[in-house]
Design goal:
By secondary structure, the chain is an alpha/beta fold. It contains 19 helices and six strands. Helix 5 links the parallel strand 4 and strand 5.
Amino acid sequence: MTGDEEWVKVEMEQLQREIDESGVANIEEFLRKRTERWREVEVNIAITGNSGAGKSSFINTIRELVEDDEGAAPVGVVECTKEPTAYVHPTNPNIKFWDLPGIGTPNYPDLETYVQKVQLETYHAFLIFTATRFTENDLQLALKIRSMQKKFLFVRAKIDENVRAESRKRSFDETAMLTNIRRDCLGNLGDLLIDEEDIFLICNHEPGKWDFVRLTQAILDALTRYQQESMTLSLGKVITRSSTDIFQRKVRVLKGRIWIVASASALAALVPLPGLSVLVDAGLILKELSLYRSQLGLPEIGSAEFARLHFATKEKVLKVGLTTAAQLGGFLAPYAAEAVLEEVARYIPFVGFAIASGMSFGATYHALSKLLGAVEEVALLVIKEAAEKTVADLESQID
């Protein structure tokens, strides 16, 4: 059994227990509890380090805010953080990035006081920032976090400043420079026994460069499965488009939702109300399709971004911009004759014969798979076109 199949088995066992306890009469509530769970999972990321290390800028960038946006973390050269301060994600208030004061400040003179006052046990992962060298306090904090069996990541920010300074030299080699910085970081964290890849070199103002995406992936990997789902689906358009890996991670999470929506569709078919299954199917599918479009970064039809697309790309975006059952039927008509049982057969041991053998499960599963594939294809085209436009704009500036 693969990891994904094992995950489905666990999910289906939970689903069956809920059916046994609550029945299937209130199908909309049943579906909401599972498909909206990603909005309800709490994620607390702690970000610590000395003043000026780039903590606030990172908190803004990961939430895709700029300094003067409402809710942005204040950025300044003086120490802004006196007490642990939470900054909520703009689209998911259950995800919080905590700006923690550094050890060695008047209110937090030593590790013991720090651990007690900031309540380290309440955070799910820790980012330790510096813009120069990691300190003995950073090392001791990491050792304490490790003793709690929690994940810490070392982040060396403002790497663009190093690149600019070194690039003036005739012998400049960016790869060699970055390697040297990582090794220097390891040099003052020698007792921690970590690898070079555990050091993340980033520029908060350029999330598409250096290790920002890799850091984002590492944060996700430090979380539980449900927390990963929550944070993955909360990442914004800029970060999603900056990395094929992040984009595909979103696609995998969305694919993982298909079976539960199809199961809800099949369960609706068991409710003895004429026509309920058909109505629920169309509603569920269109709602999920809307999520696919927003998560994979398709521009809103009529927006300025949409207007800048090539005509052929606009047509493709419009094709997956379905909002009615009639439009949905027209899109799926070419696939109506395709067999769906083979595609969903691997779920039968988990879903149960009464659900998996129903046409509603197979049809909904098949429809969502086709729609997600179509949205993914169009989203990749939009990303490619945006990248090509950026290159063309840069070249025109040089000319």
